[in-house]
Fold this protein.
Amino acid sequence: MSQMSVLLADDHPIVLMGVREIIERDPRFKVVGEAMSSSELISKVSQLRPDVIITDYNMPGDEQYGDGTRLVEYLRRHFPEPRVLILTVISNPQVLTWLYGLGISGVISKSAGLEQILVALDAFYREGHYQLDILDEASDSIEQGVSHRLSQLTVKEFEVLRLYTSGMSVSDVALSLNRSIKTISTLKISGMRKLNVESDQALLILCIKANLFA
C-alpha cells in the first residue's frame, strides 16, 4: 500500500508541530498540509483530498464553517471519503455519541497523549478502521460531580455554552449557529441550570477549573 496522506488542523502551532513529528516517525504516513482555521481546513481538504483529516474540535471558526459540531458536520457532508480524527479534551457522552453518529473514525483525547494518533493511523493502514471508545473516560479528567452534570447537556446546549465561554456574545453565538437570539438564550439558561451555575462568572469559573471546553 502507498503512503497515506494526512491533513492536520489546529490553531496552536506547537500542537501542529508535535502531531507532525509523531506522524512522520512512520514512513507509511505523510503530512501533506496544515491548517489553523476552519476556512483554511476546508480549502486544503478541497485542494489536497487527504486520506485522513486530524482536526482539533475547537478552532477559530467563521460565519461559513464555524467549528465544533458545525465544522465536523460540514466535513462529513461535503467530504465523506477521508477518515476524520478529532483531537479534544471533551468527554461529554452525548457530544461524542453524536460525533460518531456522523461517521468520524475516532476521538483522540488530548489528556491521554498524542501518541494515540499513531495507533489510530496504524489501524487505518492495517485494518481500514479505528474505534477508540472514550465515553467511559468522562470522569478520569474532571471531578465526578461535574462530569455527571456535564453529561446532562444536550449537544445544542453544549455548543452554546462552549461558544459563549470562548468569549462570544449571545448574538455572536446565534449568528454562528444560525439560530435566533431567543433560542440561544433559552439553551444557555437551560445548560447553566443543568451545570448548577447561576451566573456567567460562575459558569466561566466552572469551565476554567474543569477544562470543559478546551
